[in-house]
DNA sequence: AACTAACTCAACA
DNA sequence: TGTTGAGTTAGTT
């Protein structure tokens, strides 16, 4: 019932203009308000005023009626969609990259795949590609939470793969996808170790390039859909899909699953399925490879102890731990 | 006010 | 494609 209301509120097919994006009352009703984005205030009035700002959207004739404040109850569906695409999604680039990588079955993506994911999910980014794509590259290079995984020598294509660092877990635990609670930054020594790991991996020690094994999942999916908050093609902006795909699992379901040690396997699988196996049983924590029994994994325990309350997560699609990057790992 | 995260532009390899 | 730096804006403490 609650989810159904959310779907209605965010459904792009809804004829109510206020439903095109999150309305401010909805956001502000959360216990942890979303940090406002100067380029994406989601109140309907401000959306239209945004036209007067230095909007990167080209000023076509089509938009004149809107910039003149004529967007009204008689507006058309095309106007809705255009307006939807005009508004920058309330996510930082780091969040967008994380979403993209998390959405892949292999747990890693090329730069182009990341571009495509973002453009497919967020119409806003079909414009001004040079600007935001530069920012994407900048963020990939700058942030330690993203790991560059070189291609296998015999694997065709351009560019490296990018994956999420296992220790970057709860970057958005403050409830905002715009601003992380804390930057995930490796110390110098860790950076060097990570560089070594990436170097080793490029020579196949971690079997990164044979492709994921059949049935491979980057993180536990049986109970956790890839995008709980639902970056659905027709809904986007973090809206739960209408399908039955999103059934909030009970925390007990998660606990039992992660206590099996599968979370440890998922660490390894994010960086190639045989990371764990090739090291004779271990996991990647930060940049260190540990040899411990999977079930006695500090990260696992920490994760299990920090499972979110899913009943509350359903209330607000912008609430923090709604995509699995935040659920999969808990930094210790 | 100071600090920090994020964004943008740009230069360069 | 990837890295790095500078400058700016804005949120947090």
TrEMBL record:
UniProt KW keywords: DNA-binding, Nucleus
Organism: Mytilus edulis (Blue mussel)
Pfam families: Forkhead
Record-annotated DNA-binding residue ranges: 88-182
Gene3D superfamilies in the cross-refs: Winged helix-like DNA-binding domain superfamily/Winged helix DNA-binding domain
Protein name as annotated: FOXB
Compartments where found: Nucleus
Residue stretches spanning the membrane: none
Polar residues bias: start-end ranges: 22-32, 41-59, 68-78
GO molecular function: DNA-binding transcription factor activity, RNA polymerase II-specific; RNA polymerase II cis-regulatory region sequence-specific DNA binding
One of the protein's GO biological processes: anatomical structure morphogenesis
GO CC term, one of those recorded: nucleus
Domain Fork-head stretches: 88-182
Residue ranges, annotated region (Disordered): 21-82
